[in-house]
Amino acid sequence: MAGSTAADPICTDEPLLRLESLKVYFRAARGLVRAVDGVSVALERGRTLGIVGESGSGKSVLARSVLRLLPERSTIQTGGRILFDGQDLCRLSESELRRIRGRRIAMVFQDPMTSLNPVIPIGRQIAQVLKYHLGMAPKAASARALDLLASVGVPSPRQRLEEFPHQLSGGMRQRVMIALALACDPELLIADEPTTALDVTVQAQILDLLHRQQNERGMTLILISHDLGVVAKLADRIAVMYAGRIVEQASAEALFGDMRMPYTAALFRSIPKLANPSHTRLEAIDGRPPDLAGELRGCRFAPRCRFAGDRCRDEEPPLGRKPPDHEYACWHPMHLTARGGNA
Amino acid sequence: MPDMIENQPHTVEPILRVERLVKQYAVRRRTVHAVSDVSFDVMPGETLGLVGESGCGKSTVGRAILQLPPPTSGRVVFEGHNLCGLTGQALRAIRPRLQMVFQDPISSLNPRRHIADIVAAPLTLSFGIAPAERDRLVREMLEAVGLEAKTVWSMHPHELSGGQCQRVSLARALILKPRLIVCDEAVSSLDVSVQAQILNLLEDMKARFDLSLLFIAHDLAVVKNISDRIAVMYLGKLCEIAPSDELYAGPRHPYTKALLSSIPSPDPKAKGSTDPAIEGDLPSPFHPPSGCRFRTRCPRAQPLCTQQEPPMRVLAQDHFTACHFPLEAS
Ligand SMILES: Nc1ncnc2c1ncn2[C@@H]1O[C@H](COP(=O)(O)OP(=O)(O)OP(=O)(O)O)[C@@H](O)[C@H]1O
Ligand SMILES: Nc1ncnc2c1ncn2[C@@H]1O[C@H](COP(=O)(O)OP(=O)(O)O)[C@@H](O)[C@H]1O
Ligand code: SF4
Ligand code: SF4
Ligand SMILES: [Mg+2]
Ligand SMILES: [Mg+2]
């Protein structure tokens, strides 16, 4: 479904977004934090990439680094390239980037309250974006703001135009955030945990909205979540992050059908499944992710991995590949060594 | 349905009986109907799950049971005693046996105190206890919840992870050997991996200390995993109570069904359906709809639903539903 619609835009060979060995570090009191440590991923036009991982694995830093929305003073990008439609965003000046941010690439955050202006009515906030990026006249911008609010399913949009963010429910605010992000018809939308703060019922509404908007606009989507269930629903391709790295990535079908990296499998198994009877013992992952400011040797998952051997602790595992495009970083990938079921 | 032998009258008394619980708040001369006439039992050794959308009144029920604050009306009978109307002294005498664990693991612990003192705090409230005995109990509880007592003894909450803080909260709740713990979103802010650790821990503690749980959460898969029975709330009222497996396999209330269809499944085969199961927002708790409170969003609503409140009826053994037009049994 996602991506398989007839209305797919022309698939050029060049992906819309390509990250090459991206490294984003922070200077912090506790040392150098390697939040994103060598991430490579490519995303074709009109497709959806899901990124999952435990909190602190670097998902948000990765997302924000694409738009350079990180604190300038403490952030160091030590390597890699961010190629968007062929140009390296890292080489752009701030003013060049401003023409892309919000216009060609837009972002939706977990907590809409922090990214909406609390003292400006929401209608005016949307109109401002339209004026800034598209140079729309005030009248046209207001009319477009109204259309946008209606299209994201805000009831009685005309009245809502005049309301302030705090007057809206969490789900409504997230809809407004999405309307704002969609205002300039971006080619790429990055949604960082867009439903984490919401109820299941509202979450389902927002995921449906994202999906429909993507199909209508032929937009490319990056959906970030710690919930494999949310990602499974929309993503064509899924990348699993652990301690600043992508440890496995594949098409959604390939990933769920044949998990290679023990961390992916462990993450999946630790989720309570509705299909299981009550009181089914959960397979928890003991311990917690490593401190990204400390020394990281070998496989970063080794201290928690049931299958870790000496080599895992000393040497970084190479990237394994299963055609056509399933990648995993593990010395002892599952399945190949017949370690029992994957799911 | 199981055989008839199961069909004997309940001889065991519930450990907790909530009867016609009502909680209203006055907000700027208007009334919030947070909880309206809610009744249920928790049996000894049982985990009862309480689910529903944000704002439906789950936490209010949990807090009203502990009289924090007391309900507007109704009875909360714990081990045979009605807690409503009890004064400070009498309530404090019950407190050791009835505990609560909250959602936000870090902020629910006093930031300036050592972990050992946090866990020991309930002891000092109830009676004089020798320091050596106190330390022994604290050590036992910390180890029971899977923390190394020696390591965390003098640490402060901010030095621990969310999962570890939740273990500390649990150790603190367990130290007085309670019979019932109300867990309000106790695993909701944790990562799936840590959440699984804490859910397993709760099951272990339940068996080891012979506990009953009222487990409040909005994640339906989590609730199903830990609960024997589940109660579904909507806008201050109960819609349905049934054994967990039965509720999920065959919901009879339209709201329960809608809630269940909203769950995203980590199974790509279920990927096709992104249609949201419930449209629209929760009505205002200032003016709940007449009759059935779900009628404004219910696909089965009829004129009767506007006129009359549906009573709670038993539709199968242990399966209660408040709906004029319940779904067929599956
Ligand atoms: N102290 C209070 N004063 C006024 N209204 C309150 C108060 N506490 C709760 N309410 C209202 O009562 C209703 C139920 O709130 P409650 O916190 O019990 O919901 P909940 O089901 O626990 O939600 P969540 O899933 O978000 O925790 C809500 O409408 C809420 O706004
Ligand atoms: N501004 C910052 N300064 C220092 N460290 C940071 C900063 N932002 C994030 N980090 C660290 O980077 C790592 C990844 O964070 P983040 O991307 O937010 O994780 P998540 O996967 O939960 O989105 C964490 O260890 C976090 O503490
Ligand atoms: S490389 Fe070794 S430690 Fe890392 S995931 Fe694979 S088996 Fe486990
Ligand atoms: S009583 Fe009527 S409105 Fe309420 S849930 Fe049943 S059918 Fe729907
Ligand atoms: Mg994040
Ligand atoms: Mg609550």
Word description of this protein:
The complex is a heterodimer of chains A (343) and B (330). Chain A is an alpha/beta fold and 343 residues long. Chain A has two domains: 17-104 and 186-337, Rossmann fold, CATH 3.40.50.300; 113-185, no CATH class. Chain A contains twelve helices and twelve strands. Chain A is globular. Mean pLDDT of chain A is 89; it is low at 1-11 and 337-343. Chain B has 330 residues and is an alpha/beta fold. Chain B has one domain (3-321): Rossmann fold (3-Layer(aba) Sandwich), CATH 3.40.50. Chain B is built from eleven helices and twelve strands. Residues 1-7 of chain B have low confidence and may be disordered. Chains A and B meet through helix 7, helix 8, helix 9, helix 10 and helix 11 of A and helix 7, helix 8, helix 9 and helix 10 of B. The complex binds adenosine-5'-triphosphate (ATP), adenosine-5'-diphosphate, iron/sulfur cluster (2 copies) and magnesium ion (2 copies). One magnesium ion binds next to helix 1 of chain B.
What secondary-structure arrangement, pairings included, does this model have?
The complex is a heterodimer of chains A (343) and B (330).
Chain A: E1 17-28, E2 31-43, E3 48-52, H1 59-66, E4 75-84, E5 87-88, H2 94-98, E6 105-108, H3 112-115, H4 122-134, H5 138-151, H6 157-160, H7 170-182, E7 188-192, H8 200-217, E8 220-225, H9 228-234, E9 237-242, E10 245-251, H10 252-257, H11 262-269, H12 310-314, E11 319-322, E12 326-329
Parallel strand pairs in A: 3-8, 3-9, 6-7, 7-8
Antiparallel strand pairs in A: 1-2, 1-4, 4-5, 9-10, 10-12, 11-12
Helix pairs in contact in A: 4-5, 5-7, 7-8
Chain B: E1 16-27, E2 30-42, E3 47-51, H1 58-65, E4 73-78, E5 81-82, H2 88-94, E6 98-101, H3 115-126, H4 131-144, H5 149-152, H6 162-174, E7 180-184, H7 192-209, E8 212-216, H8 220-226, E9 229-234, E10 237-243, H9 244-249, H10 254-261, H11 303-307, E11 313-316, E12 319-321
Parallel strand pairs in B: 3-8, 3-9, 6-7, 7-8
Antiparallel strand pairs in B: 1-2, 1-4, 4-5, 9-10, 10-12, 11-12
The complex binds adenosine-5'-triphosphate, adenosine-5'-diphosphate, iron/sulfur cluster (2 copies) and magnesium ion (MG) (2 copies).
